[in-house]
Design a protein that fits this description.
It is a single chain. By secondary structure, the chain is an alpha/beta fold. 39% of the residues lie in helices and 17% in strands. The longest helix has 20 residues.
């Protein structure tokens, strides 16, 4: 079999990847067994311009000033000067958004061109067969589009882990205006791609009339992070003395809030708890205030491998649903892969995570719209039953679409199509 060259165009990747970055890392590592895989991403803290990790070649470009300011403000222990830098970076970003408002959601034409030039040089050196550009951010999609436009023979797949036109509401901007802008961009970019991979949770949105002209370019997949543990350990995870909880993932105002979950977990009466949050995104002040409690600690994002080790040591995995949007937190599938007990807090009847968690089974669903007293009792009863770890190798078929192989097979179908076109 020919070893093809595949480039994933992303944003934040190892060692401290965001959710989207973890998805493309997983796909690249799966494909790298039989193909040469590259990931282009941003040159941020603790990274190198070029390095090889788990057979994947990482090539990094210097990001925008906003990213550099924001990352510098998040490294190490929080200080007043770093808090000020973070606030300045947000103000700077808001000014940029206002300047580029007519081109929403673009915030920097200069960086898009810089990223494109970087990728163009990389392609001239490596001659890629497939490029996979990821959203979020739109910069990656547009850089991939420009590369495809210059080199039409490259197969270009868009990987829409997030979605332009079916995401969260945007503060201070009219919903209808945002919808029209994002639909226009998304339809344009889908039409110019060879394939656009969309998450299954957004299927109704993308099967609507809004995308009927481009429906042939769209294929549905799911978050590729289900990799079941092979151990058969199903021992009770909680002990008599202390129950250890962990939450990992982003927290976003107006989309995913920790307040409902912590109002319950920090007020359990009959359970001795230790709670750790590994998160960023907008609730830093609230979490800092909660950290004054002896049993609660909040940290920023950490190395993904280290995070997985911490998850393995914890008793209960905390999941927080989105208040709206069809987006599923990618961490859901890493949680499910462990077989450990999950407590999922939600305030939205259409929470996209719930069907997966119900299929998983080893989970307690807590509606934070119910009274605090009843929810505390519900959680304490659940913990009192000593929830156990389950063997997830027995559920591999149920989560087949969430395996890395499912999505990589779709991407590799582009290579088969390329061979067929050459033969004709």
């Amino acid at each position: 079999m020919k070893r093809n060259k595949i480039l994933f165009i992303g944003e934040i990747n190892k060692p401290i990847a965001n959710a989207n970055g973890i998805c493309i890392e997983t796909l690249a590592e799966e494909l790298s067994v039989e193909h040469d895989c590259y990931i282009s991403s941003y040159l941020v803290r603790n990274t190198k311009a070029t390095e090889i990790i788990n057979r994947v070649v990482y090539k990094r470009v210097k990001p925008t000033l906003f990213y550099r300011m924001r990352e510098k403000s998040r490294v190490g222990k929080t200080t007043p000067s770093k808090e000020l830098l973070y606030k300045i970076s947000l103000i700077f970003n808001k000014i940029k958004k206002m300047i580029f408002l007519p081109l929403y959601p673009i915030t920097s034409i200069g960086f898009i061109l810089k990223y494109y030039i970087f990728l163009d040089k990389l392609h001239q050196e490596e001659k890629f067969d497939i490029i996979v550009s990821q959203y979020f951010p739109i910069d990656s999609l547009l850089a991939g589009y420009l590369l495809k436009r210059k080199y039409p023979k490259i197969k270009h797949a868009q990987y829409l882990v997030d979605t332009l036109s079916n995401g969260a509401t945007v503060k201070f901007l009219p919903d209808e205006w945002v919808r029209k802008k994002t639909l226009k961009w998304e339809n344009f970019l889908i039409s110019k791609s060879d394939l656009s991979l969309v998450l299954l949770s957004h299927k109704l949105h993308y099967m609507s009339k809004q995308f009927e002209e481009n429906i042939e370019k769209i294929k549905f997949t799911d978050i590729p992070l289900f990799k079941p543990k092979t151990q058969q350990d199903t021992t009770v995870t909680t002990d008599t003395y202390q129950t250890k909880f962990i939450y990992s993932g982003s927290l976003v105002p107006n989309l995913r809030s920790p307040i409902g979950a912590l109002d319950i977990l920090l007020n359990l009466v009959n359970i001795d708890t230790q709670i750790e949050f590994y998160t960023q995104g907008g609730y830093e002040e609230y979490l800092k205030k909660m950290s004054k409690k002896d049993n609660f600690s909040s940290y920023g994002f950490i190395n993904h491998e280290l995070l997985l080790e911490k998850i393995e040591k914890m008793d209960i995995l905390v999941s927080i649903g989105n208040s709206h949007s069809d987006m599923i937190p990618s961490k859901t599938f890493e949680y499910i892969s462990t077989g450990k007990p999950i407590i999922h807090f939600y305030d939205n009847d259409k929470d996209a995570s719930i069907p997966y968690l119900e299929k998983y089974g080893n989970c307690l669903l807590v509606d934070t719209r119910n009274t605090q007293k009843s929810n505390i009792k519900k959680v304490e009863l659940y913990l009192g039953e000593k929830p156990c770890r389950i063997d997830m190798t027995l559920k591999s078929k149920a989560f087949e679409m969430n395996s890395p192989q499912y999505t990589t097979n779709i991407l590799l179908s582009l290579l088969k199509k390329q061979v067929q076109e050459q033969e004709h």
